[in-house]
Design brief:
Blueprint (H helix, E strand, L loop, with lengths): L1 H8 L7 H16 L4 H8 L3 H25 L6 H9 L2 H30 L7 H18 L1 H25 L1 H14 L9 H7 L3 H17 L3 H6 L8 H30 L2 H5 L4 H8 L5 H31 L19 H17 L2 H29 L11 H22 L4
Length: 427
């Protein structure tokens, strides 16, 4: 009977602090800098670094709320349990859970699409074949075990960070030119080479802010991996200390890389070519006279991270929803007694990822994910505000209450902007 109960719901605590840091860093980088950065550049132009800064404000304020909530309520359900316990309303938790399952599944499809694009930058493989093969491999790794997944991601994240450092070295001249390009995009400077073109293209600060905002809506997607870390709570050792620390270290690390990479791309002055490329970092390196193949190969490793963590996060959410009777069949609550992973939930998530990756365009996938995750960000921030008013446990981080207030307002503002942009026919 005990073994049956374990198979039905229990997960194994096998992940330490630094494994979780690399797990989180890998998924955030894989989701953003290698896949969506070209779309952000296409929307924000020379103001792309500012779009990432604005998106970072939204993400960091919400990440601090996730950090305290994850320590208060360390469950695989994450926001499902945060909202339900804060407001004592079951349907709020259920709604957040289903929305996050959609967001993580769509996000995994986004990253798989990006992987295929990078692969095709140096080797022709039919898109459908590459998509199916990748998801089958990732589903297999996710089923093998959380410890195995986190060790794989530690290795691949280190490769990815090395690739980003190589990109920054190759584009070091562009990085130095970037401040002038950004000023030109704001209409404040016109004397830095190609910046004259930006001054003509951006006629006012209002237009500049519109570009920043449009880019930031997409850039928010680049940061969402920290939320996936919350779904590992039942598999982390010393979770009340390790989870908040890992979230902050991961987010700080990737924020620096996002801004630096965006500045380097802007400094090249070749934004149209980069925005239109299926593998934007490879294109930028090649335009600077460096070989793109090593970057393309290294990029594949960290892109894989992002897709793997999204599949893991979505399967944990589906597990939690099923075992709590929130509308998912009970079969998805089963945990393998051999691998300590939710095998049925992982299989159905992987199948959905394949379908979306084959049928839906990259940009639409990223926008769908951003919308869903912003709704959840608002809910998590409001949950922390409510719970802090009740009590403040000594053993969890004490995030000042203005932080979740700022997080809720920032996420709500970004969400409203996305709705307005969609309603006005923006893309």
């Amino acid at each position: 009977m005990a073994r049956t109960a374990k198979r039905e719901s229990a997960l194994d605590r096998s992940v330490g602090l630094w494994q979780l840091v690399f797990y989180g860093s890998g998924t955030i980088l894989g989701a953003g800098i290698f896949v969506v950065v070209g779309e952000v550049v296409g929307e924000a132009g020379r103001l792309a670094p500012l779009a990432y800064v604005l998106a970072g404000v939204v993400a960091i304020s919400s990440a601090l709320s996730f950090a305290e909530m994850g320590a208060r309520i360390p469950t695989a359900g994450g926001p499902i349990d945060y909202l339900e316990r804060a407001f004592d309303v079951r349907w709020l938790g259920s709604g957040a859970g289903w929305m996050l399952i959609v967001a993580n599944t769509v996000s995994a499809a986004t990253i798989v699409t990006g992987f295929v694009a990078y692969l095709n930058s140096f080797a022709f493989v039919p898109d459908w074949m590459a998509t199916v093969a990748l998801v089958v491999v990732l589903g297999g790794v996710a089923i093998a075990g959380m410890k195995e997944s986190s060790w794989l991601m530690t290795a691949t994240t280190l490769i990815g960070l090395g690739a980003l450092l190589a990109v920054l070295w190759a584009l070091r001249g562009a990085l130095l030119a970037a401040p002038g390009e950004v000023l030109a995009g704001l209409g404040l400077e016109a004397g830095f080479g190609r910046a004259r073109e930006a001054a003509a293209a951006t006629s006012s600060s209002t237009a500049g802010f519109g570009m920043i905002f449009a880019g930031s809506i997409l850039a928010v997607y680049s940061f969402i991996g920290f939320g996936d870390m919350a779904q590992t709570a039942e598999e982390v050792r010393d979770v009340k200390r390790a989870l908040p620390r890992a979230m902050m270290i991961s987010l700080g690390l990737v924020f620096v890389f996002y801004v630096l990479i965006a500045m380097a791309l802007v400094g090249t002055g070749e934004l149209a070519a980069i925005a239109g490329a299926s593998a934007p970092l490879v294109k930028a390196v090649e335009l600077s006279g460096w070989p793109g193949l090593p970057i393309a190969i290294a990029s594949l490793f960290v892109i894989v991270n992002g897709a793997l963590t999204q599949i893991i996060a979505a399967s944990r959410l589906l597990l939690d929803i099923a075992r709590d009777g929130r509308g998912a069949p009970p079969v998805f609550a089963r945990v393998s007694d051999k691998t300590d992973t939710p095998v049925p939930a992982t299989l159905v998530i992987a199948g959905t990822v394949v379908t979306l990756a084959l049928l839906v365009p990259l940009k639409s996938l990223a926008e769908m994910t951003s919308f869903a995750i912003l709704v959840v960000f608002v809910g998590v921030n409001l949950s922390l505000i409510r719970m802090k008013r009740r009590s403040q446990p000594e053993e969890v981080p004490d995030i000042p209450i203005p932080i979740p207030v700022i997080g809720a307002l920032a996420a709500a503002g970004a969400l409203a902007g996305q709705v307005i942009q969609f309603a006005s026919g923006g893309s």
